[in-house]
Write a structure and sequence with these properties.
SH3 type barrels, Alpha-Beta Plaits, three-stranded antiparallel β-sheet, 17 helices, 13 strands, disordered N terminus
């Protein structure tokens, strides 16, 4: 939840600032020469000579397929596609679909009639030219908004249906067959008639080709992921560190998806799919590839931080253990934010409009997220001041525990009861942090109460014996210890024992206390010294008769 909340805050911050920055860049200043410059004159569109009339367009279209008249430096299919009104087709697939539709139109015309070009009007102001394709429909050449004569959008939309209706007809005599074919048209020419029938928007062979394409993409996904996983594992093993197999497997999973997506991206154009189906599939492939790219960078952060964790464990600096998890989380947040923008840009979403719309309420949301900002600054202060490290036993207010992880919003402590306490980082700014784990020595102070009937010489021997135990103990600091008789209590003679243990952790401290405590008990048994406990003597007097 910490990462999700931080991600929401950063996203809202970007949404808030982006519209204002965009507005500042777009708004001209008073002194800007561009603001005072006169508006540029709109250039008048000049119709190409080959598209100035119905006859010119039809001639240009047929000449594109004539090897003796075609320009060798230009793609004839692009010239033929330029005679079609492709304004209704998505720009991302306009070039490819234009070539396919041009070939389909050529086949439809070749199986309809031998067109006499002289019979077509050469007047730019003439009425649109219409050719009836039996009972299947019409082919129309008409001027568009720029007065450019093209095969109109209705004809372009109806071409797959027209081609289906005339496919069984023979080519008109005197017409030379087209030698330039797209991969899709070539595949269609090799298919048996039974697979050329249309069902559910596409021809049967196209459905079979899609299934084969998906199976091949799945194989590419697995193979590429396995190759990359083994390559990266061998490289890390030889040059850096050895990473867990499961982590590498998760990291290489999106790489296989990228390879499979790119394969589908290239191969899907070979199927000659209808425009609507091609647009939907391409959007899906673009989305999968974009998500896979973001996912790959997201998993790359895991690999890099895994190497950093291994190297941090090999060093004696505990600050590395505290910094690596924070680097991992911050990197993932950055990858996620930029990844969303990348995915939106890949899908041609109106990012600026979205940012402008959401920027209105950005300030209110930012004010509502002020606690998150405090926690974020708290984590930054912890990194700069380094009041504790991972593994230190700290006391923050009324909470005691071992530091397990420092996040953007909170710090997690493992208490002696083995419960996990989450403290907001803003508390680390206002509260005092007692780092018990950073102590070079751990003090032990206790009071031993002896009974009042203990002789003085035994008390002196007992004190000297404790000093000797301290001097002979390897875990006790050999300076600054005290063993001395201090006071007469209500029920005991008190001896103060104070020393410092030179141990790395709490477990070693308990073990040292136990060893020294047992040694003191054995010493008391040897000297015959008894420990007092709270007692009270009551004297009863009988009144005299």
């Amino acid at each position: 939840m910490n990462i999700r909340r931080l991600f929401v805050f950063l996203l809202l911050l970007v949404l808030t600032l982006a519209p204002s920055l965009t507005a500042q860049e777009a708004e001209p200043t008073d002194g800007d020469p561009a603001a005072d410059a006169p508006e540029e004159q709109v250039e008048v569109y000049e119709v190409p000579p080959g598209h100035r009339s119905a006859r010119a367009t039809m001639t240009t279209f047929f000449d594109a397929f004539d090897e003796t008249k075609a320009d060798p430096e230009l793609n004839p299919l692009d010239i033929a596609a330029g005679c079609l009104d492709l304004s209704a087709i998505n720009p991302t697939i306009r070039v490819h679909q234009g070539r396919e539709l041009a070939l389909q139109l050529k086949e439809v015309l070749d199986k309809t009639e031998l067109i006499d070009l002289e019979s077509l009007s050469d007047d730019p102001q003439a009425s649109p030219y219409t050719l009836d394709i039996y009972e299947a429909g019409q082919v129309t050449i008409a001027p568009d908004a720029n007065l450019e004569w093209l095969f109109d959008a209705a004809t372009v939309e109806a071409l797959p249906h027209l081609l289906t209706q005339v496919r069984d007809r023979e080519t008109i005599e005197g017409i030379t067959e087209v030698k330039v074919l797209t991969p899709a048209m070539w595949l269609r020419s090799k298919m048996p008639p039974s697979l050329l029938e249309t069902g559910l928007l596409m021809e049967h062979w196209q459905w079979l080709a899609l299934i084969v394409l998906l199976l091949v993409a799945g194989i590419i996904d697995r193979v590429v992921a396995a190759i990359c996983r083994n390559t990266v594992a061998n490289y890390l093993r030889q040059h850096l560190e050895e990473i867990e197999t499961d982590r590498l497997k998760r990291a290489m999973r999106p790489v296989g998806m990228i390879a499979a997506g790119l394969f589908c991206w290239a191969a899907i154009y070979w199927l000659g799919l209808p425009t609507f189906v091609l647009e939907v599939l391409l959007v899906a492939v673009h989305f999968v590839v974009a998500v896979a790219f973001v996912w790959a960078f997201y998993r790359l952060v895991d690999i890099v931080t895994a190497v950093l964790e291994i190297r941090a464990e090999a060093t004696g600096n505990k600050f590395d253990d505290l910094l690596v998890p924070l680097v991992r989380k911050s990197s993932k947040v950055i990858v996620t934010v930029f990844g969303l923008v990348f995915i939106a840009d890949t899908l041609n979403l109106p990012i600026r409009s979205i940012l402008t719309g959401l920027g209105i309420g950005g300030l209110a949301v930012a004010l509502a997220a002020q606690d998150l900002v405090k926690n974020l600054f708290g984590s930054l202060l912890v990194i700069m001041d380094q009041p504790f490290s991972v593994g230190d036993y700290v006391s923050v207010g009324s909470v005691n525990g071992t530091v397990e992880e420092l996040g953007f919003r909170s710090t997690r402590l493992r208490t002696p009861e083995n419960s996990l306490v989450t403290l907001p980082n803003s508390h680390l700014i206002t509260s005092s942090v007692d780092n018990l784990g950073a102590r070079p020595y751990r003090r032990w102070k206790t009071s031993l109460g002896l009974t009042y009937d203990t002789p003085v010489d035994k008390i002196e021997a007992f004190c000297e014996g404790i000093r000797e135990l301290i001097r002979n103990h390897s875990a006790v600091r050999q300076s600054g210890y005290y063993v001395s008789f201090t006071q007469f209590s209500a029920s005991s003679l008190d001896i103060l024992v104070q020393m410092h243990f030179d141990v790395p952790g709490f477990a070693e401290e308990l073990e040292a206390k136990q060893e020294l405590g047992f040694a003191i008990l054995r010493l008391a048994e040897e000297l015959g010294v008894e420990f007092a406990f709270p007692t009270q003597t009551v004297h009863l007097e009988r009144p005299a008769e």
